[in-house]
Design a protein that fits this description.
Blueprint: E1 2-9, H1 13-23, E2 27-33, H2 39-45, E3 50-54, H3 65-77, E4 82-87, H4 92-100, E5 105-108, H5 113-147, H6 159-172, E6 178-181, H7 188-197, E7 206-210, H8 219-224, E8 225-226, E9 238-239, H9 241-244, E10 249-253, H10 260-272, E11 274-276, E12 283-285, E13 289-294, H11 298-303, H12 309-315, E14 318-321, H13 331-346, E15 353-354, H14 356-364, H15 370-384, E16 389-390, H16 402-405, H17 412-426, H18 431-438, H19 442-451
Parallel strand pairs: 1-2, 1-3, 3-4, 4-5, 6-13, 6-14, 7-10, 10-13, 15-16
Antiparallel strand pairs: 8-9, 11-12
Helix pairs in contact: 2-3, 6-7, 13-15, 17-18, 18-19
């Protein structure tokens, strides 16, 4: 017996009796109505997966308009319900009209029992799939609200960051596929969230997938879903991320980690805008806004035969390069203050401040781990601090190795930046001592640090 509650609406009571006898052994419950005016109250009182609806109720009127009217009312009350229209008049134009209005399928009187059951079971499965997707969307929204309980902001005002945000605002209003590039820890996911927030899809869900964390064996199941029994552990049918993201945005993080042979399957889904669950031949259309991110050079990977060129063109309609923290100048201090307030509140250490020497140390460091590294550095300093004023020695950063960081391939500007970082590190954040070592004034050194973010 298929799980599912069925509502049958037809003014012919003999039709109702025949369908009830035929369908009762096949479905969980069967309810019949001979008066369509009772539909609204019935739907308010009980939940149905499937409705079988007559096209005509008044004698002598065969236009199907009544059926279309009640179909619309049913879908307004329960958008996910599958509605199969039933009529004695085989009219192609009427069929198309009903399907456009939201009907799942269409059957004719007199019917073939086997075909009727197959049609209804397929319509029921569609309803159950929609319910699964809705439940997953609600679950995703719940997880997102839990994670975002403390609001995440894009913090800073450097020219490099403002340029990125201006591009985000322009791109967000379009449906263009976006590729976000940048080093680890620069905030690529925050940029993706901002694109979704400013887009026409903001009322729908943004589904994030870490492509680097999905094993090859689970790739198709995770992205495209599966039906019950498709493989050993498939105990229940489950929609994939593409289905859950329908009408919203899909964010594929670390797309450069996807193996070459799986890239073809992803490309097909993106091109065709439809997917099939594992174990099913039924295609499911998906309407998504695609946003991808990577810290890798995909063009180099294309030349090396590691990334499909056609996939790169598909995901790269617009590219947004997120600048590393070392190129954002005094945004370092703005972010440091932001994280300081956050963790001072979290660990109940009010009135914490960073002194000038410590600020100089933060400004002079190259931040290879970018914003993520700065955040962890500030949190650690707050946890371990015994005083209200944080000094240079309260901040623990990776040591700068000059031989490793300065290479012959670097530009003069890059070498100068590394020399400045090394001098500041060596003098424990003291800009005056670092400037003296470099043979320039303190103001010149500060100007060079600030200029590196422009």
């Amino acid at each position: 017996m298929a799980k599912g509650n069925v509502l049958i609406v037809d003014d012919n009571k003999s039709i109702l009796s025949a369908l009830e006898i035929l369908l009762s052994p096949e479905f969980q419950s069967i309810t019949t109505l001979s008066d369509p005016n009772l539909i609204p109250s019935e739907l308010r009182q009980n939940e149905y997966n499937l409705a079988i609806l007559d096209m005509n109720f008044k004698a002598g009127i065969n236009t199907g308009n009544e059926g279309i009217y009640w179909l619309t009312r049913i879908k307004e009350t329960n958008p996910e319900i599958s509605v199969v229209m039933i009529t004695a008049y085989g009219d192609v134009e009427l069929t198309v009209k009903a399907l456009k209005a939201g009907a799942t399928d269409f059957i004719l009187k007199p019917w073939d029992n086997a075909k009727l059951l197959a049609t209804l079971k397929s319509a029921l499965q569609l309803n159950l799939s929609k319910k699964e997707v809705s439940q997953l969307k609600e679950k995703e929204k719940g997880l997102k609200s839990e994670i975002n309980r403390e609001q995440k902001y894009i913090v800073g005002s450097s020219p490099r960051l403002m340029s990125v945000l201006n591009l985000v605002r322009k791109v967000a209003k379009t449906e263009a596929n976006v590729l976000i590039t940048g080093e680890n820890g620069t905030g690529k996911e925050l940029i993706a969230q901002e694109i979704h927030r400013l887009s026409g899809r903001s009322s729908e869900i943004l589904v994030s997938v870490d492509m680097g964390a999905i094993t090859e064996t689970l790739f198709e199941s995770e992205l495209f879903g599966h039906v019950k029994g498709a493989f050993t552990d498939a105990r229940e049918s489950r929609p994939g991320k593409f289905e859950v993201a329908d009408k919203g945005s899909l964010f594929l993080d670390e797309i450069g980690n996807l193996s070459f042979h799986l890239q073809a399957k992803l490309l097909a889904a993106i091109q065709n805008r439809q997917i099939s669950r594992i174990g099913s031949n039924q295609t499911i259309p998906v309407d998504i806004r695609l946003i991808c991110a990577t810290n890798k050079n995909l063009e180099s990977m294309v030349h090396e035969g590691l990334f499909r060129e056609d996939l790169l063109y598909r995901i790269n309609t617009i590219q947004i390069e997120v600048p590393p923290l070392r190129e954002r100048g005094t945004d370092v201090l703005v972010l440091a203050d932001f994280f300081l307030k956050k963790y001072a509140s979290k660990y109940n250490k009010p009135n914490l401040k960073i002194n000038q020497q410590a600020q100089d140390k933060l400004l002079g460091y190259s931040w290879p781990g970018n914003i993520r590294e700065l955040q962890h550095t500030i949190e650690k300093a707050v946890i371990l601090s015994d005083n209200h004023v944080l000094k240079p020695e309260d901040f623990f950063m990776r040591p700068v190795v000059s031989g490793k960081n300065i290479t012959p391939e670097m530009t003069l500007e890059e070498m100068e930046r590394q020399m400045i970082n090394l001098a500041i590190e060596k003098n424990n954040g003291n800009l005056s001592a670092a400037a003296e070592q470099l043979g320039i004034t303190r103001q010149t050194l500060y100007n060079k640090i600030k200029k590196s973010g422009q």
